[in-house]
Amino acid sequence: MNIHFSDKIWFWRGPSPFYFVTVPAEQSDELHHISGSVTYGWGMIPVTARIGQTEWKTSLWPKDGGYIVPIKANVRQAEKLEEGDEVMIQLEVA
Question: Is 50 exposed, middle or buried (0-12, 13-18, 19+ CB in 10 A)?
Answer without folding.
Answer: middle
